[in-house]
Amino acid sequence: MSNAKNRVPPLRIGILGCANIARQFARDVAPSPSVEVVAVASRNLDTAAAFAKAHGIVRHFAGYEALLGDAGIDAIYLPLPNSMHAQWAIRAAEAGKHVLCEKPLCLGLAQARSMFDAARKNNVMLLESYPYYFQPQTGAMLTLLHGGEIGDVRTVQACFGFTLANPAGNIRMNPELGGGALLDAGSYALSLIRLVMGCAPATVITDAAWSDSGVDINATATLYYADGRRAQLSCGMDTAYHRRATIVGSAGVIETDYLNHTSAQVGSSPYGYLPSQLRVRRGTAVTVPYEDIVCGTGSGFRFAAEAFADVVWANAHQAVGRAERASLDNAATLEAMARSARLGQRVSVDL
Q1: Is residue 308 in a domain?
Q2: Comparing C-alpha atoms, which of 83, 85, 76 is closest to residue 124?
Q3: Is the CB of residue 205 less than 8 Å from the CB of residue 221?
Q4: Last residue of some domain: 131, 164, 185?
């Protein structure tokens, strides 16, 4: 985790919204010396007050605009429904606040461009937060890839799925709020593929099953790259929990669970976080054994918040620019996959 010796005071964060994910974020970042959650806002004052009391947060507001007007806040964490990300990220940027935005960044490429344009215009940082991105395990995976440990990447297969316990009232089942398997679980699998491949695909073809509410309940996709590589993605909200990626190179294989939150061993986390496997086969033969790679563990929320603080204090526009390019590629690809699923045919990814 980050060293806060050169940062006084810590990055002061306000949270827009009081959903369960916001509660997990506040809980997990509370021990960090690098960031401090100093405010929370809800459309309902009582809800905000209860949230603040539960998490030891000093200020609470009725309404998101009220929080954005607080001069004692440096940045916001944005865990609102997908359909609200663009609106409130732009308003936060206009208020001079840096933005750590939950995945998926938004509902399409045009919204994503508007969000980053607003961040640049107002000289603030905007970062899309996939918690697993910031895990030490992901850094170790990239070291293996960039070090040529498996040769040239040929293909990636990534999956993520889970069961919605109470789908009737879940925002993931609401098309007007940006619900659906592709934007939720699929965005994780796609982000891993983009991280490994380093660019967006040229075309995609997607097959989806649809719920009564009109959202995709599960989907599979093949991604075709301009250089001839391919990737495959599957996601669902009607399956047993599963999350796994296989990266196949010319000279080896990497397998990973790419979990958001990790622990060193089963039962060691009070929040039920589990170990996440990363293993590598350096070789092409079936007789070559896999090697387990052991990495640091912890909450992806805390890792993400501390990495966000690092780029804000360092004014690291180059690093954020690389993240922006990935976010734009992911937004365009998710949009293309949804279009392909509706049309039932292969479509181009328009960047």
Answers
A1: no
A2: 76
A3: yes
A4: 131
Residues 6+ apart with CB under 8 A from 80: 16, 17, 19, 88, 102
Give 10-residue mean pLDDT values along the chain (351 residues): 55 97 98 98 97 98 97 98 98 98 97 98 97 98 98 98 90 95 98 98 98 96 98 97 98 98 97 97 98 98 98 93 97 98 97 92
Catalytic residue among 5, 53, 97, 103: 103
- Whole-angstrom distance, CA of residue 125 vs CA of residue 115: 10
Nearest C-alpha neighbor of 314 from the set 59, 3, 96: 3
pLDDT in tens, 215-226: 999 999 999 999
Q: What is the DSSP letter of 131?
A: G
Scan for tokens 């209860």, then name that residue. Answer: 50
Using CA atoms, how far apart are residues 315 and 4, in angstroms rounded to an integer? 16
Is 311 a domain residue? no
The answer to whether 98 touches 312, Cβ cutoff 8 Å, is yes
| 232 CB-near residues (< 8 Å, 6+ apart) | 155, 156, 157, 158, 220, 221, 222, 223
CB 116 within 8 A of CB 285: no
Q: How far apart are CA 335 and CA 204, in angstroms?
A: 10
Question: What's the whole-model pTM score?
Answer: 0.95
Write down the pLDDT at residue 166. 84
- Is 179 part of any domain? yes
My answer on whether 336 and 209 are in the same domain is yes
Beta strand residue intervals within the chain, DSSP E:
11-16, 35-42, 59-62, 75-78, 98-102, 126-129, 153-163, 203-210, 216-224, 230-236, 238-249, 252-256, 278-282, 291-292, 347-348
Separation CA 310–CA 303 (nearest Å): 11
Which pLDDT value is given to residue 167? 86
Eight-state DSSP code of residue 274 = B
Is 53 designated active site? no
- In a domain? residue 316: no
pLDDT of 50 reads 98
